[in-house]
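Researcher: Here's a chain I'd like modeled. Treat it as a single chain, no partners, no ligands.
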Amino acid sequence: MRAILAIDQGTTNSKAVLVGEKGDVVARGSAPVGISYPKPGWVEQDPRRLYASVCEAIDACLKAAPDVTIEAVAISNQRESVTAWDAETGDALGPVLSWQCRRTAPDCEHLRAEGRLERVQALTGLPLDPMFPGSKFRWLLDRVPKGRQVRLGTIDSWLVHCLTGGKRHVCDASNAARSQLFDLQEQIWSEELGEIFGVDTALLPEVLDSSADFGATRGLPGVPDGTPIRAAIGDSHAALFGHGAFKSGDGKVTFGTGSSVMSTLPRFIAPRNGVTTTVAWRLNGKPTFAFEGNILVSAASLPWMADILGLPDVAALVELAATAEPGGPGFVPAFVGLGAPYWNSDARALFSQINFSTTRAQMARSVTDSIAFQVHDVIAAMRAQSGGELGALYVDGGPSQNRFLMQCVSNLVEHEVIQCEAPEASALGAAYLAGLSLGLWRDIDVIAELPRSTQIIAPEPVDRTTLLNSWNDALERSTLCQTPAKGE
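Model: Modeled as a single isolated chain. C-alpha cells:
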C-alpha cells in the first residue's frame, strides 16, 4: 500500500500520520516534545529534542503499518516558533523560542515608540507583538558565539534541515508569512523589515510554495534515503487546507494550547480590528490569503483549572461545567497576555464577579466559556472588517471533539460549526499538498470531494447580550482599560 508520511510538529507533541491514496488515515504515532519556562513570560524548547520527538513519532507510526510504502514526506508545524543553527555543523545555536514566548515584549514596545507599527503591519499583515518572530530572531542572533555561520528559521526549515542531513535551507510561504520579515504582497524577504528588526535576511531560508520540492530524506530512521519531501506548511494553514475550506469566507477554528481562527479571502486585504492577514498557502507561485486571529491561551487553561478544583482530568472539568448555567463569573485566560483581537501583553489572567455563593461548577463554566468568548471576539472582528458572510466554519483539535464546548462556540458566534471526527486536520492538509505535488490528486477540487466524516452543530438561542456583558467586564478588569467594541 502506498501512503504519504505527514509530520505534524506541535507545541507539546510531535505526531506522524500515514495518509493513503483515498485521503484516509492508515496509521498514527506521537511523542512528547517538552517545554520549559526559564523566566516568567519566557517559553522555550530544545531544538534537538524537538527533532528527536519527530523521529519517535515516525517510528511509532511505521510500526503500526509495517507494509506501507512511503511515497513522500509532508510537514506541518507549529508557527512563529524559531531557532538558529550552525550552517556548517548543523549544531543548534540556541533554544526554540516558542510562539508563546514574551521575552521580546520590551523590544516590540521600543519599535512601537519609534513609530514602526504602521509600516510593519502594512508589509507583513502582523502587529508588533512578541508572538511573532522578527524580534525573536534578533534575540537569538545577539547570543550566537562569534565566528559561527548562522542559519535562522521557522520550525519547518529546522525540520527540513534535519530530515535532509543539512542539505536544504528552505521554508514555505505560509511560515514565511508569519515571520514578520516577509513582504506579503511582493512575496519576498524584505530588506526594509530586516533593517527594522536588525536581522540579515541572507540568513533566512529560501521560500518555496507550500507544495514543492523541499529535498529528500537522509538518515531518517525507518524511511529510505531519497524519499522526497513534497510539502511544508504551518499547522493552522494546513488544517484549513485539510478541511477543504477553499471558498472565500470559509474558515476554521483549531483548538489546542492556544487557538487559531482563520478565514479565506478573495484577495489581499490589509489588516485592522486586531486580526492579521496571512498567506493561507501558496500553489504555483500564487498565494491564497486569509484573515487570522491568534488566541494565545485556549484549552491550556482547562488542565490548570481541573488541577485547582481537584478533578481527575479535563473531561471531569467539562462535565462539571456543563451543570452550571451560563452567565456566572467571568474568566480571562491572559496567562501570557492577550492575543487577537486585543494584542495586550500586559493583560493578566483573572476571575471577576465571584462571591460567597459562587460554586465550583460556575468557576469551571467560566473557564470553558472563555474559549468560546475569545473565538467570538475574533470572528466579530473579521466580520466587521471583511463585510462579507462567514462561510463554512470547521473546528478541529482535541477540544473540538467535545460537543458541549463546540455548542457554546456555535451559540456565541450564531453560526453552524462543522465538527470533524478526524483529529488530524493539519497532518491531512500537509499530506494533501504533498499529494498534489506527486499528482495523486489532480487539483484542489478533487481534494475538496475527498470523504470526510463530519457533524453539524447548529446554534441554540441564548442571551448573548448578558453573556457578553459579563465577558467584557472581565476583559476590562484584565487589561485595566476600556476594551474596544468587538463588532457588537
